[in-house]
Specification:
Layout (H helix, E strand, L loop, with lengths): L2 E4 L5 H10 L16 H6 L1 H6 L4 E6 L2 E9 L2 H11 L1 H5 L15 H10 L6 H4 L4 E7 L8 H15 L4 E6 L4 H9 L3 E5 L5 E6 L1
Parallel strand pairs: 4-5
Antiparallel strand pairs: 1-2, 2-3, 3-4, 5-7, 6-7
């Protein structure tokens, strides 16, 4: 039986592993990256480090099968990453700015993101200042665990005073899009590349 509990620093390796194994639009991206930690450095590690009150894991006897992580104030979180998280990683991963975007390897694309992180649209943050990431391994999917985990996070964000939450999902990840709509999210914007911003009022 799966249970949801607050994440702890001891879960870091599990979060990084799950992040990598779901990074290819929900599928396993282990074979795509030479450095298996790079995806987690961007999409998991800083949340566990700087927003532990909004980090939860799904666990059973076999270990951690999923997580949901979020932040209350996206703008403040981005500023903190610029001060305290990105500098250390930038010293370890060179900026491949001299490599044409179309020729960059998957690792180089992420390394470029470390040096040039995307910032949330202030227009989105005006009504939906919080954001989240949720990832479940295949064995933990399809039994309502994702909804339960989101509700746990929504409660924490709501109690902390958040009026709304947003997230990003790839245009070709139609399964995730359907899931988010099912739990109440709606599409707010779509970028030229197909990335979708979805929002939910709390």
């Amino acid at each position: 039986m799966f249970e949801i509990r607050p994440a702890s620093p001891a879960d870091r390796a599990a979060l990084y592993r799950i992040c990598l194994e779901t990074a290819d639009s929900g599928a396993d991206a282990t074979g795509l990256y030479r450095d298996p930690l790079l995806v987690g450095h961007i999409y998991a590690g800083p949340y566990l480090e700087f927003a532990p009150d909004f980090a939860f894991v799904l666990k059973d006897g076999a270990g951690v099968g999923g997580y949901v992580i979020g932040v209350l104030d996206t703008a403040a979180f981005e500023e903190r990453l610029e001060r305290e998280w990105w500098p250390g990683l930038r010293s370890r991963y060179l900026d491949p700015a001299d490599v044409p975007p179309g020729e960059r390897t998957p690792d180089e694309r992420l390394a470029h993101l470390l040096h040039h992180p995307q910032r949330a649209d202030p227009a989105v943050l005006a009504g939906y200042p919080s954001h989240l990431h949720i990832d479940l391994l295949p064995g933990a999917q399809g039994e309502g665990h994702g909804r339960r985990m989101l509700e746990r996070l929504f409660t924490a964000l709501r109690e902390a005073g958040s009026p709304g939450v947003h997230l990003g999902v790839g245009g070709r990840n139609t399964r995730a899009q359907g899931f988010y709509r099912h739990v109440g999210f709606r599409e707010l914007a779509r970028s030229p590349s197909g990335a979708i911003t979805m929002v939910l009022g709390l």
